[in-house]
Design goal:
alpha+beta; eight-stranded mixed beta sheet
Length: 250
């Protein structure tokens, strides 16, 4: 049995030069405010909800277009790092008290110490219409050659409920209801490096999309049950018709 995961953070990784734009957009759609910046280049901020514990952070990156990654929060960082390595992950960088790793399929994630986080932020009310939304899922976009290994890795590392998704190319790793983020694994049609994006559960996808477009986002494509969006800082994410309270499909 691996070290229990006490909390999770979803990172919105965006180009450092677009940090201000990313901060404005993601605080608006998550109903949060910015922390003071941290890091040598002020590249890290936490999105602070009212009356709950934070679970979203924004990181300005110098190389590439960014994407998403997870921080797994535990009481014993060393124990979870050892479990991850036993399951095939590699250590990318060790820091005082926390570690950056890469999964067997190439997805970056971090293991960080628990600071007592326990209260999940509520759903967000969309202005002018009664719709609600919640950023509640990180989707790992995986080549066919690594998909099965990644399903096995994340299922065993987290110890969460692991089951096939609504479509054959999806698999869901679902945490206890007290934790803020599910992991969705998506099998792509072609071989490419692993990447990740955020999914937002919406009570009304059209209403949420209209609100996001008013904040500068743009519709990229319509999927079988979701809208692919591009935020004003250039990153993609999806709006999905899941219940924001439970994360489940209606």
């Amino acid at each position: 049995m691996t070290e229990p995961i006490r909390w999770t953070y979803a990172f919105v990784d965006r180009p450092l030069k677009e940090s201000g734009t990313a901060h404005d957009f993601w605080t608006a759609v998550t109903g949060t405010r910015l922390s003071e910046p941290r890091g040598d280049r002020d590249e890290f901020v936490t999105l602070l909800p009212g009356g709950a514990d934070a679970c979203v952070k924004v990181q300005g990156v110098e190389d590439g277009d960014g994407g998403a990654h997870l921080d797994l929060v535990v009481e014993d960082v060393t124990a979870l790092v050892l479990s991850a390595r036993r399951l095939g992950a590699e250590v990318v960088a060790g820091h005082e008290g926390w570690t950056v790793l890469r999964s067997p399929g190439g997805q970056s994630f971090c293991v960080v110490p628990w600071q007592g986080e326990s209260t999940r932020p509520p759903v967000v009310e969309v202005p002018g219409g009664g719709a609600t939304s919640r950023l509640d899922q990180v989707c790992l976009d995986l080549a066919p050659s690594v998909y099965d290994a990644e399903v096995a890795f994340w299922s065993e590392l987290t110890g969460w409920v692991s089951r096939p998704g609504a479509l054959p190319e999806f698999h869901v790793v679902r945490p206890p209801a007290t934790l803020p983020f599910r992991i969705l694994l998506q099998r792509l049609d072609d071989e490419r490096p692993a990447s990740a994006h955020h999914d937002i559960a919406c009570s009304d996808v059209d209403a949420v999309r209209a609100h996001h477009e008013s904040l500068g986002a743009a519709l990229v494509a319509r999927g079988a049950h979701w809208n692919v969006m591009r935020d004003p800082s250039g990153g993609t994410y999806c709006l999905t018709p899941r219940d924001p309270a439970t994360g489940s499909l209606p």
